[in-house]
Amino acid sequence: MPNRFGKLFTVTTWGESHGPAVGAIVDGCPPRLPLSAEEIQGELDRRRPGQSDIVTPRQEADRVEILSGIFDGRTTGHPISMLVRNADQRPGAYDELREKFRPSHADYTYQAKYGIRDHRGGGRSSARETVGRVAAGAIAKKILMLGGTACHGAPVEIRAFLTQVHDLAVPAGVLEKFPSLAEVEATPVRCPHAATAEKMIERIKAVRSEGDSVGGVIECRVRGVPPGLGAPVFDRLEADLAKAMLSLPATKGFEIGSGFAGTRLRGSEHNDAFESRDGRVRTVTNRSGGVQGGISNGEEIVFRVAFKPTATILRPQQTVDGQGAPTELTARGRHDPCVVPRAVPIVEAMVALVLVDHWLRHAAQCGTFEF
Amino acid sequence: MPNRFGKLFTVTTWGESHGPAVGAIVDGCPPRLPLSAEEIQGELDRRRPGQSDIVTPRQEADRVEILSGIFDGRTTGHPISMLVRNADQRPGAYDELREKFRPSHADYTYQAKYGIRDHRGGGRSSARETVGRVAAGAIAKKILMLGGTACHGAPVEIRAFLTQVHDLAVPAGVLEKFPSLAEVEATPVRCPHAATAEKMIERIKAVRSEGDSVGGVIECRVRGVPPGLGAPVFDRLEADLAKAMLSLPATKGFEIGSGFAGTRLRGSEHNDAFESRDGRVRTVTNRSGGVQGGISNGEEIVFRVAFKPTATILRPQQTVDGQGAPTELTARGRHDPCVVPRAVPIVEAMVALVLVDHWLRHAAQCGTFEF
Amino acid sequence: MPNRFGKLFTVTTWGESHGPAVGAIVDGCPPRLPLSAEEIQGELDRRRPGQSDIVTPRQEADRVEILSGIFDGRTTGHPISMLVRNADQRPGAYDELREKFRPSHADYTYQAKYGIRDHRGGGRSSARETVGRVAAGAIAKKILMLGGTACHGAPVEIRAFLTQVHDLAVPAGVLEKFPSLAEVEATPVRCPHAATAEKMIERIKAVRSEGDSVGGVIECRVRGVPPGLGAPVFDRLEADLAKAMLSLPATKGFEIGSGFAGTRLRGSEHNDAFESRDGRVRTVTNRSGGVQGGISNGEEIVFRVAFKPTATILRPQQTVDGQGAPTELTARGRHDPCVVPRAVPIVEAMVALVLVDHWLRHAAQCGTFEF
Amino acid sequence: MPNRFGKLFTVTTWGESHGPAVGAIVDGCPPRLPLSAEEIQGELDRRRPGQSDIVTPRQEADRVEILSGIFDGRTTGHPISMLVRNADQRPGAYDELREKFRPSHADYTYQAKYGIRDHRGGGRSSARETVGRVAAGAIAKKILMLGGTACHGAPVEIRAFLTQVHDLAVPAGVLEKFPSLAEVEATPVRCPHAATAEKMIERIKAVRSEGDSVGGVIECRVRGVPPGLGAPVFDRLEADLAKAMLSLPATKGFEIGSGFAGTRLRGSEHNDAFESRDGRVRTVTNRSGGVQGGISNGEEIVFRVAFKPTATILRPQQTVDGQGAPTELTARGRHDPCVVPRAVPIVEAMVALVLVDHWLRHAAQCGTFEF
Question: Among A34, B98, C264, C332, which is least packed by CB within 10 angstroms?
Answer without folding.
Answer: C332
